[in-house]
Amino acid sequence: AWPDTICILVSGQADLETVVQAINRVGLFRFLVKPWDVEELKKALRRACDHFELIGENRSLARTLEVRNTELREINQKLDREVSRRTSELLLGLLNALDLRDTETQGHSRRVALYSRRLAEEVDLPLEEVIEIERGALLHDIGKIGVSDTILLKPGKLDEAEWAEMRRHTIYGYEILRKMNFLGSARLVVRNHHERYEGGGYPDDLSADEIYIGARIFAVIDTYDAMTSDRPYRKALPAEVAREEITKHRGTQFDPVCVDAFHKIPDEELASLRDRVASDDDAGLA
Predict the structure, then answer these.
(1) What is the mean pLDDT of the chain?
(2) Fewer CB atoms near the end CB (10 Å): N or C, the chain?
(3) Cα 169 to the chain's mean position, in Å?
(4) Cα dist. 25→14, 21, 102 in Å?
(5) What is the pLDDT, as a whole number, of residue 27?
(6) 81: pLDDT confidence band, cut at 50, 70 and 90?
(7) What is the helix (H) or strand (E) element at residue 66, kind and residue range?
């Protein structure tokens, strides 16, 4: 009934076993032997009262701290939402800057952002890294801002020198984002997204695990989206054709782990993500 009661045992006959039982059963505060000393008994009672008050104060402080912690959690959650909103607005601003120069970028960038997030989840990466990969996919072509219009908007084929300049967009993009520390590994998706699993890609000729996992995921996704989207020179290809092409280059252009994980995602789910981009201006923003 009164669990906070302070227990003092006073006995002239208690042996060690009795004292141990008292401690174990009721949490003995003090043990006094009869005949007791009056001053010693007074001190024991004062300390017992002080201890009782301390328990009450600690419990009150614990309740106050719990309330304050709840308030702090709510404030932090609100701040996190605000930071996330402003980050999305910033990324959207960067993407819109590219859209002014390359009108085909927006739909593609948003689709591959959602596809990449889904594949990163299938690969079972931590949520924080999944979000960074989604953001990196969204901004993968941001470096094209630094490419000359005569090259970026050229209607015909590019010559060797023009291709060399176009390939620099991965470096331009990385440099644009390099000091944006909040993007984390998203910047590596931008720099590494044209590397090949077996090597021979650009700009750093990396291979296998040297390539950031987000870029290896993106390589699969980019090919899928390119093949299943309408292009000026052809209509979109069926999903099964794109999957066959990805399987064909498993272990050469693409990471086998990413390819196998990608094939576990149903076509219907990818089609749903594509429809979401078509109907939602904010789709693809982490």
Answers:
(1) 89
(2) N
(3) 26
(4) 15, 6, 78
(5) 82
(6) confident
(7) helix 38-99
Q: What is the mean pLDDT of residues 3-13?
A: 85
Partnered with residue 8 across adjacent β-strands are: 30
Could you read off the pLDDT of 103-150 as tens digits, one per residue?
665 588 889 999 999 999 999 999 999 999 999 999 999 999 888 888
- The answer to whether the CB of 246 falls within 8 A of the CB of 224 is yes
Q: Which amino acid is at 279?
A: S
Are the CB atoms for 197 and 252 separated by under 8 Å? yes
Query: Which residue type is seen at 150?
Result: T
Q: What is the DSSP letter of 37?
A: P
Our separate counts of H helices and E strands in the chain read 12, 2
Scanning the structure block, which residue is given the tokens 């950031």? Answer: 212
User: How many Å from the N-terminal Cα to the C-terminal Cα in the chain?
Assistant: 54
The span from the CA of 203 to the CA of 273, in Å, is 30
Decide: helix, strand or coil at residue 27: coil
> Position of tokens 């909103």?
85
**Spatial contact of 136 and 186, defined as CB atoms under 8 Å apart:** yes
- CA distance linking residue 115 with residue 270, whole number of Å: 7
Pseudo-torsion of CA 147, 166, 180, 136, nearest 10°? 130
Q: What is the rounded CA–CA span in Å between residue 113 and residue 101?
A: 20
Say how far apart CA 59 and CA 4 lie, in whole Å: 11
Is pLDDT larger for residue 179 or for residue 117?
117
Residue 141, SS3 per DSSP: coil
Give pLDDT, residue 28.
85
